[in-house]
């Protein structure tokens, strides 16, 4: 750190009473970015439901505005924190920050939030031009949309990193900071669960090895990392509860909002927004992950990783297999569990109550034929365990780094 | 990702083609919706999926509701979204506006339904939704994205470095040499990953661009020649047509058989390229599925632009374009009684035929502007000055051909607008059982009512149209009087 900076006076502190500028910069940013991270993922779910139910939208649709405003809030508050810390704050403030381009100081998470906000803003004119040049995208994955999604995830990562450094600087006993950090990771778990929704989201997919492989690959990474880096005992559990609670509430709320499809062809005339579906019961695997990978375990990380991979898949199979079977016996759509609400463009049929991609089974003429190929199933689950173990190992590395983040 | 792509920036030219016409993308329709006379203008976005703008004009008295609905040829009404209500334009009684999404490439009808005191009526306006617009990255947007992209790249590298160095140092402590070295490694590795990601994004963008260009509409390739026997031979040489293999969506709609429009499979126009001083309207007969032949009559020698209008069974219209050298010579007869040739100078507002009768462009605006109603109203008078009735020419009172002097705009107009009657028939009479190519075409060809109409028309008639871009145009108006086809050209400057 440059000595000239250390000698700078602190203009923000006068007569022991922190100014409003200082309060906004140092205290408000934390809840604001946590709120932004939540609003982004809720806005995204609303947006997805909009596309699945109404179809037609503009840049100015309410969910889009919610996402952009949330990101802009995170960016603006973090921007103010940087300006305050760099030019008005105390030396102590600056020593809690990372230096950027010589003159600027801010928390690592703040920089990440600002980056994500700029990325989201950049994607807007790019996306607009894209529609003018190539037409409104039928596919969700286009370069400007991926860029937008990258910006959203980055704002969420920034929020998580802000919670992390707050937790790591707080006195050891601060449960509040630990819970906020774990919850901010739960929001990211919800985001990645949303990204892989097409492969994992429906109960119909939850007898396929692919579901277990993707879940083991994605969720163990984040849950192990938060378990390792969190200061509270049940960090991964809190993250899993955050994910599940928001999903369940979204199901209940979205399904109450009236909606009419506005694009052809309409095969399923829905009357309300399509619900995202029942969450994966991540809380039980998360408890096990907290037990195995929590920060105070004495096992080698190389032993923890395979233990996590194995137990995660075993638990997930023993929960999701019967649960998805149960969910598919329900009348569709089912409000309480949020299952069986299909897109306006789906041609409904007997397939809506059947399992997809199960080795040995194939769907023809409205019925499922064949019998489960047990060999392929076991092989698939074995692969899921290996993927889970590798992912857990990366989660441990990531979590170990996160334990050190102080600024 | 928001890096400028050399390929994309190179595409600065905006090309506007439209199936059915050349350089005149908007659809103008004048007709009736049940008891209501109606005018409809459909402006398509030039990209698909995209938002089309629909303007409807009806006499305002007693109108309760106007709706618009896009119906795709092979999906029919049952696969169409619910109709959108067209909203009245404030301060302009009788004018309504709606926006419709055209989600896929293909042949559509925009069904306009009018409800009012006189009851209920529907008009079918055929439009072909195809990608015709190619835009490059706007220079200002390129600069903004370039600056933001650079900022994001440098910012990301700095964040990676900070994550590996400053952020893990306890407050107040200094960075040691080992940490700094680790930071350097992380920075280089992170920058490498970012470059790799950018490269992936660029490849992706280029693939989208290639795919889009492949899906863009271009008229079928064609070739024309005129031999010493003064027979024009027009051949569709496009591999999509000759091999009957569609490689993209719009080609699927143009694979189907041709549909006779006013009883002719092809309406072919020739304009002398250097001065627009010679003009022919011919109806070639098919020699085989891709070759057509017609006599050029007394057309003087020279280089000509050729426009051949056809309509496919799907209601998808096309104008094929070619150039041809016509050798000097004469031929006293045509192959088709509805063929006509004209050589001569244009009129400004009045054109006098050799027998002394006249065609007047009534109330021709002193200045014509782009995208505003061109006011193409004409009056036929006999030599004594009386407005005289006209006989049907190809089933209607008159035909007009509009061409910009460089050939970049061409359109064939009827009093019913820019749309083809055959396309309207195809879209209106298609049934779910019409699954075999040719079934619908045969039914329409057999339906003789299409050729029936009044025996005479009033001598005052108009064409709904707006010029799409500035320049010097010529408009040839063709009518029939006393059994003779009369052609009258007019010169127009559009600002």
Strand elements of chain B, count: 26
Largest sheet properties of chain A = 2 strands, antiparallel
Distance between termini of chain A?
14 Å
Class derived from helix and strand content of chain B: alpha+beta
Could you give the count of β-strands of chain A? 6
What fraction, in percent, of the residue positions of chain B are helical? 10-25%
For the biggest β-sheet of chain B, the strand order reads: 1-2-3-7-6
Task: Describe the protein's architecture and organization.
With 407 residues, chain A is mainly alpha-helical. Chain A has 13 helices and six strands. Chain A has helices spanning 3-6, 20-53, 62-88, 91-95, 108-134, 143-169, 175-195, 197-200, 209-229, 235-254, 283-293, 301-329, 374-404; strands at residues 13-14, 17-18, 98-100, 104-106, 361-364, 367-370. A two-stranded antiparallel sheet of chain A has the order 1-2. Chain B has 495 residues and is of the alpha+beta class. Helices cover 19% and strands 34% of the residues of chain B. Chain B contains seven helices and 26 strands. In chain B, the strands form six sheets. In chain B, strands 1-2-3-7-6 form a five-stranded antiparallel sheet, with no helix packed on it. In chain B, strands 17-16-12-13-18 form a five-stranded antiparallel sheet, with no helix packed on it. In chain B, β16 and β17 (317-326) form a beta hairpin. Chain B is elongated, with a radius of gyration of 28 Å. Chains A and B meet through β3, α5 and α6 of A and α2 and α3 of B.
Short description:
The complex is a heterodimer of chains A (407) and B (495). With 407 residues, chain A is mostly helical.
List its salient traits.
heterodimer; A: 407 residues; mainly alpha; two-stranded antiparallel sheet; 13 helices; 6 strands; disordered N terminus; B: 495 residues; alpha+beta; five-stranded antiparallel beta sheet; 26 strands; elongated
């Amino acid at each position: 750190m440059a000595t000239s900076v250390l000698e700078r006076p602190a203009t923000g502190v006068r007569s022991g009473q922190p100014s409003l500028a200082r309060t906004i910069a140092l205290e408000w940013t934390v809840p604001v970015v946590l709120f932004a991270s939540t609003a982004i993922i809720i806005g995204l779910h609303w947006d997805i439901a909009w596309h699945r139910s109404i179809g037609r939208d503009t840049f100015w649709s309410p969910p889009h505005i919610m996402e952009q405003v949330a990101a802009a809030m995170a960016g603006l508050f973090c921007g103010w924190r940087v300006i305050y810390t760099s030019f008005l704050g105390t030396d102590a403030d600056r020593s809690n920050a990372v230096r950027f381009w010589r003159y600027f100081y801010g928390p690592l998470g703040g920089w990440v939030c600002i980056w994500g906000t700029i990325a989201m803003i950049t994607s807007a004119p790019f996306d607009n031009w894209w529609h003018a040049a190539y037409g409104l995208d039928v596919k969700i994955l286009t370069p400007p949309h991926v860029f937008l999604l990258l910006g959203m995830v980055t704002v969420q990562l920034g929020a998580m990193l802000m919670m992390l450094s707050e937790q790591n600087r707080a006195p050891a006993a601060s449960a509040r900071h630990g819970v906020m950090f774990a919850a901010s990771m739960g929001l990211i778990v919800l985001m990645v669960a949303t990204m892989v929704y097409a492969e994992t989201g429906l109960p119909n997919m939850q007898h396929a090895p692919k579901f277990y492989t993707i879940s083991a690959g994605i969720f163990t990474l984040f849950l192990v990392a938060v378990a390792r880096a969190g200061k509270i005992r049940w960090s991964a559990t809190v993250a899993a509860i955050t994910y599940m609670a928001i999903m369940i509430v979204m199901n209940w709320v979205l399904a109450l909002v009236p909606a009419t499809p506005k694009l052809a062809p309409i095969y399923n005339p829905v009357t309300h927004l399509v619900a995202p579906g029942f969450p994966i019961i991540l809380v039980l695997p998360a408890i096990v992950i907290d037990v195995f990978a929590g920060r105070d375990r004495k096992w080698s990380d190389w032993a923890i990783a395979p233990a996590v991979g194995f137990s995660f898949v075993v638990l997930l199979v023993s929960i999701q297999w019967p649960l998805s079977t149960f969910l598919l016996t329900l009348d569709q759509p089912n409000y309480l569990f949020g299952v069986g609400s299909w897109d306006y463009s789906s041609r409904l049929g007997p397939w809506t109550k059947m399992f997809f991609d199960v080795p040995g089974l194939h769907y023809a003429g409205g019925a499922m034929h064949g019998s489960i190929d047990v060999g392929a199933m076991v092989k698939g689950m074995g692969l899921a365990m290996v993927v889970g173990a590798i992912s857990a190992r990366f989660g441990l590395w990531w979590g170990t780094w996160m334990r050190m983040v102080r600024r | 990702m928001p890096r400028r792509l050399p390929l994309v920036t190179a595409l600065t030219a905006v090309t506007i083609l439209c199936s059915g016409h050349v350089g005149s993308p908007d659809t103008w329709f004048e007709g009736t919706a049940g008891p209501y006379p109606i005018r409809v203008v459909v402006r398509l976005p030039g990209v698909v999926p995209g938002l089309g703008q629909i303007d409807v004009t009806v006499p305002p008295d007693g109108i309760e509701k106007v709706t618009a609905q896009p119906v795709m040829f092979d999906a029919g009404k049952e696969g169409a979204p619910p109709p959108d209500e067209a909203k009245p334009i404030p301060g302009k009684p009788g004018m309504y506006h709606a926006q419709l999404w055209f989600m896929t490439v293909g042949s559509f009808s925009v069904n306009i339904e009018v409800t009012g005191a006189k009851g209920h009526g529907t008009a079918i306006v055929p439009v072909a939704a195809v990608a015709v617009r190619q835009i490059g990255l706007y220079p200002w947007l390129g600069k903004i994205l370039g600056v933001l992209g650079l900022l994001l790249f440098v910012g990301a590298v700095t964040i990676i470095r900070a994550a590996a160095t400053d952020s893990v140092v306890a407050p107040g402590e200094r960075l040691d040499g080992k940490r700094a070295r680790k930071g350097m490694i992380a920075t280089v590795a992170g920058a490498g990953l970012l470059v790799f990601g950018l490269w992936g994004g660029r490849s992706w963008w280029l693939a989208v661009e290639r795919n889009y260009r492949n899906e863009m509409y271009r008229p079928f390739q064609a070739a024309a020649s005129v031999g010493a026997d003064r027979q024009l031979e027009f051949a569709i040489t496009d591999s999509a047509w000759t091999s009957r293999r569609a490689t993209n969506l719009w080609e699927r709609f143009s694979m189907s058989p041709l549909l006779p429009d006013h009883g002719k499979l092809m309406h072919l126009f020739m304009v002398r390229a250097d001065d627009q001083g010679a003009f022919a309207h011919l109806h070639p007969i098919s020699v085989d599925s891709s070759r057509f032949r017609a006599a050029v009559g007394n057309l003087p020698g020279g280089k000509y632009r050729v426009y051949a209008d056809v309509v496919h069974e799907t209601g998808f219209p096309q104008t094929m374009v070619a150039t041809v050298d016509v050798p000097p010579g004469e031929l006293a007869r045509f192959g088709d009684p509805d063929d006509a040739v004209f050589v001569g100078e244009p009129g400004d507002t009045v054109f006098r035929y050799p027998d002394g009768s006249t065609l007047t462009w009534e109330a021709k605006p002193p200045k014509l502007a782009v995208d505003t109603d061109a006011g193409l109203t004409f009056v036929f008078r006999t030599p004594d000055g009386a407005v005289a009735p006209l006989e049907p020419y190809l089933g209607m009172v008159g035909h007009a051909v509009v061409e910009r002097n460089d050939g970049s705009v061409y359109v064939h107009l009827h009093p019913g607008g820019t749309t083809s009657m055959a396309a309207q028939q195809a879209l209106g009479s298609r049934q779910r059982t019409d699954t075999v190519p040719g079934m619908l075409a045969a039914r329409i060809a057999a339906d003789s009512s299409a050729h029936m109409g009044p025996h005479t028309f009033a001598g005052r008639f108009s064409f709904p149209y707006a010029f799409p871009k500035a320049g010097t145009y010529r408009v040839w108006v063709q009518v029939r009087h006393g059994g003779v086809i009369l052609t009258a050209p007019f010169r127009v400057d559009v600002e």
